[in-house]
Amino acid sequence: MLLLANKKGVESFPFFLFLTVLIAAVVLTISFYQLQTFSEFSSKKEMADGYNELVNTMENLRATSDPGSFKKVNLKIPGNYNIEINSTNDTITIKGEGDEIVNELDFDIIYTTVPKLEPGSYNIEVFYGNFTGTPEPYTIYFI
Predict the structure, then answer these.
(1) Could you tell me the residue ranges of all domains in the chain?
(2) What are the b/e assignments for 53-72, b being 16+ CB within 10 Å?
(3) CA–CA dist 122, 137 (Å, integer)
(4) Distance of CA 73 to the CA centre of its chain
(5) 3-class SS at 131?
(6) What tens digit of pLDDT does each residue of 55-106 get?
(7) Which of 44, 45, 46, 56 has the alpha carbon at shortest distance from 92?
(8) What residues are paired with 100 via a beta bridge?
């Protein structure tokens, strides 16, 4: 089969070039959509891991440490999500994309300087013991 002309003498190269460009455009569109989906999933998973680390750190400090112990936890919150820490009800609420998850904690949050976390990256200090002195930014005090 010749690429330049068929039996009627019509050039077939422009047709094959158009077909190749069309297939490449479809593949690229699907690939970009899949990359965006993976990126969203990855950022949600990173937030869930950071949240789990925050709660596990609080549980570990209460179980194994003396009052006055603290640990820092990194937490990244993707766009369209926020986390609210309610010291009155001892709950942490995750809101985003039409979902709302309320987690009741087994410990008493005494004071927090982070009642609401908007999308971004945070280095939160988790402090086990009574609140005394001047609070640091992004600190959670609990007993």
Answers:
(1) 43-142
(2) bbbebbeebbeeeeeeebbe
(3) 10
(4) 14
(5) coil
(6) 898 888 888 878 888 889 998 998 889 899 888 888 888 898 888 888 888 8
(7) 56
(8) 95
